[in-house]
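Hi everyone,

Forwarding the result from last night's run.
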Amino acid sequence: QVQLVESGGGLVQAGGSLRLSCAASGRTFSSATMAWFRQVPGKEREFAAAIRWSGGSPYYADYADSVMGRFTISRDNAKNAVYLQMNSLKAEDTAVYYCAAARYLGRLSRASTDYSSWGPGTQVTVSS
């Protein structure tokens, strides 16, 4: 089981930037597909971005259309961490952001059911 803890959320004005971090524990981190999801009250958890490491360079990444070109997911296997750089933030990006891990999935996935480990979440609020 991979244990995850997010940080870096907060309040930012529209057009601003935030960088979310996710610290992971567990020896199998480098083989895990990592992802960021987000959720607003009353709505389903929504995929934002995912990344996996093929054993070399480059990483493979996938983004939801709503964040493509504005968000960048990255990982540092040496630090057991994954990041989400969020630029040009909009009011509709306001949500609780969750880090998720899927061990040995071997592919990218947008389905929350593929991820077995979740962090507690961090609130991002974008004021317009």
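The longest strand covers residues 95-103.

Cheers,
N.
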